[in-house]
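Encode chain A's predicted structure.
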Amino acid sequence: MAVQVTESDQIKQFKEFLGTYNKVTENCFMDCVKDFTTRDVKPEESSCSESCLQKYLKMTQRISMRFQEYHIQQNEALAAKAGLLGQPR
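Encoded structure for chain A:
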């Protein structure tokens, strides 16, 4: 069974992505860029920005994994409560 994604859902997802991207960009910029006397990005600013983004990506991945684990546990608990688990067929 294929899940159809409507155009409005795609637009909503894209807007959410852009909001997240803008928030991460702003946070990392504010934390890492300190010198506005030159147009060049200093090596420490560049490494700070990369580290900031990596930290965000790892955190997002970890939260996603924990959410999936929680969701599985909740589904198992509901199934057990309904008597769907542990019964021989």
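The chain is about 75% helix and 0% strand.
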